[in-house]
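Q: What would this chain look like folded?
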Amino acid sequence: MTKIQHSHSKPACAQHSSGAWPCRALLLALMLVAHATASLAHATASTYTNPVIDRDAPDPTVIDGGDGHYYLFATGERIYRSTDLVGWTYVGQAFGHNPRPAFVPGVDSYWAPCITWQDGRYVLYFALSTWGGVDEASIGVATAATAAGPYKLVGDGKLFTSRDVGVRNSIDAEYFEDDGHKYLVWGSWNGIWLIELAADGLSVKDMNVKQQLAGTRFEAPYIHKRGDFYYLFCSIGSCCEGARSTYQTVVGRSNSLFGPYCDKQGNPMLENACSLLLTSNEVSIAPGHNSRIIEDAAGQTWMFYHAYLRSNPEKGRLAWLDQVTWPHGWPTIDGCGASAGTRPAPRTSNQHSTCH
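A: My prediction, written as structure tokens:
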């Protein structure tokens, strides 16, 4: 910590007694402004308008940093910070000045991050791949003491490659804990798969033991437990073609982590069935690759996802936020599309949410 250096000369305000009161008034005014600014920094918004991050922020994943802030990670190593889940400030790159992953030749910037809190540290899973490199696609892992990082690779950073695990295009990993066990669910167009991690979450327990949960129509999986059911969220369609993209967010559920997961009509996701959660509408194009479900201080549930802005798709895949309700035991977003206009914001009150 840099110490304040004390000068032996008198402060400017004390040099002339005739100017003391104006200087004191100025100091008081500055202190009041500083206090007001600090208060605003810790205030929570009562309303918000989508998108909540108005720049390219694909594949969002969010966590409570335990320091009065939430942290959102996106493809490209970008990290954002917020006190209320709707006003976001760019923090920096996940690895800072630490070495970046290099176990996939020619690639050193990750896709599809998944940020978690495990055993007193932050654990970041990520995908590394060239576009279309289905056999080289890999999942990596890094850790940090604080949510903002910098993150340090575990070994060379490799958790497993597509060849290691026998699943092509092994990207889009998401973490899940259940009954004292740690799991990773992942996959993209080659099945959605579940595998158990070692107790520390930094390696795979047995690379040869894995469970297929869904068919070849899906990518970007996420599992959420609510009540008696496990919900498997995925994305379908094309993610990354600007205004031509067809991405949608879909869901199925099961009464067992290991499946079978089915749509609302009881058709299995292993046969590529699913129920629609989000699709394009008048304000957004191709909403998908959702974050984990976040519960706010009022018990309401929320979901981040990326989508193109219909009025300006050249901006890229922006970060959006909408409330999730659960009529008849199924997740629903009003209108099956991104919200338009001003909406009530999450009730955070700077309290910790259940998004670890």
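The helical segments are 20-41, 162-165.
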